[in-house]
Amino acid sequence: MVGRLALVFASVLSVCFALVVSIGMPAASASAAAPASVDTVHLSATPAPSPEPTSDFTSTFTVSGIIKSGDEGVESVDVAVSGNGFDETVSTNAQGRWTVNVPEPGTYTVALDESTLPDGVALRDGTEASKEITLAQTNSVSVLFPTGEDTRQTTGFGEQLLIRIVAGLNFGLLLALAAIGITLIFGTTGLNNFAQGEMVTFGAIMSWVFGVLLGLNIVVATIVAVLLGAVFGYLNDAVIWKPLRRRGVRLVQAMVVSIGLSIVLRYVYLFNIGGQTKTMNVGLSTPVIIGPLRLTVATLISMGLSVVVLLAVGYFLTRTRIGKATRAVSDNASLAAASGINVDRIIRIVWILAGALSALAGVMFALYRQVSWDMGFQILLMMFAAVTLGGLGTAFGALIGSIVVGLFVELSTLVLPPDLKYASALVVLILVLLVRPQGILGRRERIG
Amino acid sequence: MDWGNILGNAAGELISPTTAAYALAAIGLNIHFGYTGLLNFGQAAFMLIGAYAFAISVLTFGAPLWVAVLAAFAASILFAFVLGIPTLRLRADYLAIVTIASAEIMRFVVTTTSLTNVTGAANGLSNFSGGFYDINPLPEGRYGFGPFVYSADQWWVRLVGWGIVLLATLLVFLLMRSPWGRVVKAVREDEDAVRALGKNVYSYKMQALVLGGVFGSLAGVIFILPRAVQPANYGTALTFFIWTIMLLGGAATLFGPIIGAMIFWVVLSLTQGILYGLIDVGILSFISTSQAGQIRFILVGLALMLLVIFRPQGIFGNKKELSFSV
């Protein structure tokens, strides 16, 4: 028995490796050739000055920069350089360049006159119009004022709220796709699958491999990624979880195994695709403007598709024989088995479904925030928060929980710093457990 | 390949302060999981709190060493209460999710740029251990034998770190053969039976959580003495490594966490040395050194899986004492 399981383990790993290695090898070379950035906002910069000797063999000290909008230089923008009793204002030339010669090394204030920027061009969000620079080790310093399209017109609170709500719904719907997998697996097998995030990453990486590296149409790439995700889910069950269930491994033990699996998979991904974020440049980033909202085509498609798929899953669970059997197994596996339901088959179907849904969520995350090796793990806790909020083991609870988490994550940025938005959702999780530990749709018996 | 160097580095890991810190954190986790049966997946948070409480007291408030250590203690006790009050009544797997969530909340909080003045945000904190090295009684110079040759300061942090580990082990030994230890172990075996005997299960769980958390925060202090505080170090991976260490040595055993930490770090060091060596001599020319580092973590994950499936009691453990009861 022990020998057989070890063999099974060796085979699952080789499958993982083979799957990712076979496509990962060209990945390394191709990613280098891919364009470094698809950012439409161009960072204007002369290369940073290389360290020069401090002795002033030339007596000129210059402060300079380029102001660009997109790829075009912006003409006649006023820049003032002051400090050390020196004050000079210059305008940018036709290429957007400006240069000020200062008399001596020291600290200067460089200020950009925002009123001279042409309409539609503004400093990128979070950039100060005035900067302190120090000329000490070098004779020249370049100062950057990154610009972007003027996004500050949408500062009205109502509009901000609307934007955040839409973003939150989008995030929540994506989360729901992945979280339903977690909750179905928990319902039917009792396992808290910590490797679910890696199923999401799997879908994202596959869509990147087929859509970007192999250049397939994004629709085809998505279908391939979802199919492979289903296979991946099936393999998860067939190679690891089914043998473990046969072996009678306890649930908490299985949970720790899933943590180990999550570490293994994550580093296998990192090994193959490297640490850099991969851009999903598949041409779906055309902006769509609806009132105050600026969305991309990808966002609209992913929201629409999520709704359709979630409705389909709801139909499957409530109206089809297999779906009803799934809910029966979730409710009481022994009773379901006694009434003639093949529990192992249902669990297999649940894993396949979870794999496919997670992969689809992964593809959409890839379109929404690019591809990285630990993207799934980063949202794993959001998924757990969502299913726990909704009530572990209930599929519709997962949907509601996901949307609550999604909205909360995005709406919290109205009051909290954006880098705390995930923390706020986790705080809500803990607060809900205080008041209603079984979650929104859960039942009392599920807590101990 | 320079085997002398590879083996020397691996031997150095046996007594390194990092190994001591991981061992101490695993001793704390062992109180939580091994003896009391609490599924704490937030041990990294206790280390984070110890480290930041210590560093912030020194840097922001200019506190002397002993006050900084007391601050680390106090912060971890407070955190244990905040964590325990809502969660200790929940079922085991809920507790796991909540503790891992709290650990991530703490990491988000110390990383946020709005607290840069206090926590240093993503850059972390450094230059806070002067007070610790000032009281080093060892004379200047480098001494030792074989691969264990260190400066006076390096010996000082090792002596203190391992001294605390041994004291903690002694304390656990005494506690677990006391009536308190018997109640705590009974809570692990059957909560309802203990409750029926009139014991306050919730209170015992809370005491265990606080005690293990204090060890975790001390581990955090030892961990940062030879280095800077980096928020990225306190991710969920740290918790999982401590779990691996505890399960490797054996949960609910006295020396399991120490031996587990030693094996963990020696094996990590050996695999790194051997992989780098193989890349150097051109046998593994198709992988880079950073990929070699990643292979080590694949091995950690595999070790965790295989351990839990095939030998959940670890090296020294007794299968009967293992509390994978759910």
From TrEMBL, chain A:
<keyword id="KW-0813">Transport</keyword>
<protein>
    <submittedName>
        <fullName>Amino acid/amide ABC transporter membrane protein 1, HAAT family</fullName>
    </submittedName>
</protein>
<keyword id="KW-0812">Transmembrane</keyword>
<feature type="transmembrane region" description="Helical">
    <location>
        <begin position="293"/>
        <end position="317"/>
    </location>
</feature>
<feature type="signal peptide">
    <location>
        <begin position="1"/>
        <end position="32"/>
    </location>
</feature>
<keyword id="KW-0472">Membrane</keyword>
<keyword id="KW-1003">Cell membrane</keyword>
<keyword id="KW-1133">Transmembrane helix</keyword>
<feature type="transmembrane region" description="Helical">
    <location>
        <begin position="252"/>
        <end position="272"/>
    </location>
</feature>
<dbReference type="GO" id="GO:0005886">
    <property type="term" value="C:plasma membrane"/>
</dbReference>
<dbReference type="InterPro" id="IPR001851">
    <property type="entry name" value="ABC_transp_permease"/>
</dbReference>
<feature type="transmembrane region" description="Helical">
    <location>
        <begin position="380"/>
        <end position="408"/>
    </location>
</feature>
<dbReference type="GO" id="GO:0006865">
    <property type="term" value="P:amino acid transport"/>
</dbReference>
<dbReference type="GO" id="GO:0022857">
    <property type="term" value="F:transmembrane transporter activity"/>
</dbReference>
<dbReference type="Pfam" id="PF02653">
    <property type="entry name" value="BPD_transp_2"/>
</dbReference>
<comment type="similarity">
    <text>Belongs to the binding-protein-dependent transport system permease family. LivHM subfamily.</text>
</comment>
<feature type="transmembrane region" description="Helical">
    <location>
        <begin position="199"/>
        <end position="232"/>
    </location>
</feature>
<dbReference type="InterPro" id="IPR052157">
    <property type="entry name" value="BCAA_transport_permease"/>
</dbReference>
<keyword id="KW-0029">Amino-acid transport</keyword>
<feature type="transmembrane region" description="Helical">
    <location>
        <begin position="161"/>
        <end position="187"/>
    </location>
</feature>
<keyword id="KW-0732">Signal</keyword>
<feature type="transmembrane region" description="Helical">
    <location>
        <begin position="420"/>
        <end position="436"/>
    </location>
</feature>
Automatic annotation (TrEMBL), chain B:
<keyword id="KW-0472">Membrane</keyword>
<dbReference type="InterPro" id="IPR001851">
    <property type="entry name" value="ABC_transp_permease"/>
</dbReference>
<feature type="transmembrane region" description="Helical">
    <location>
        <begin position="234"/>
        <end position="255"/>
    </location>
</feature>
<dbReference type="GO" id="GO:0015658">
    <property type="term" value="F:branched-chain amino acid transmembrane transporter activity"/>
</dbReference>
<keyword id="KW-0812">Transmembrane</keyword>
<dbReference type="GO" id="GO:0005886">
    <property type="term" value="C:plasma membrane"/>
</dbReference>
<feature type="transmembrane region" description="Helical">
    <location>
        <begin position="155"/>
        <end position="176"/>
    </location>
</feature>
<feature type="transmembrane region" description="Helical">
    <location>
        <begin position="262"/>
        <end position="287"/>
    </location>
</feature>
<feature type="transmembrane region" description="Helical">
    <location>
        <begin position="208"/>
        <end position="228"/>
    </location>
</feature>
<feature type="transmembrane region" description="Helical">
    <location>
        <begin position="293"/>
        <end position="310"/>
    </location>
</feature>
<keyword id="KW-1133">Transmembrane helix</keyword>
<protein>
    <submittedName>
        <fullName>Amino acid/amide ABC transporter membrane protein 2, HAAT family</fullName>
    </submittedName>
</protein>
<feature type="transmembrane region" description="Helical">
    <location>
        <begin position="6"/>
        <end position="31"/>
    </location>
</feature>
<dbReference type="Pfam" id="PF02653">
    <property type="entry name" value="BPD_transp_2"/>
</dbReference>
<dbReference type="InterPro" id="IPR043428">
    <property type="entry name" value="LivM-like"/>
</dbReference>
<keyword id="KW-1003">Cell membrane</keyword>
<feature type="transmembrane region" description="Helical">
    <location>
        <begin position="65"/>
        <end position="85"/>
    </location>
</feature>
<feature type="transmembrane region" description="Helical">
    <location>
        <begin position="38"/>
        <end position="59"/>
    </location>
</feature>
<feature type="transmembrane region" description="Helical">
    <location>
        <begin position="92"/>
        <end position="110"/>
    </location>
</feature>
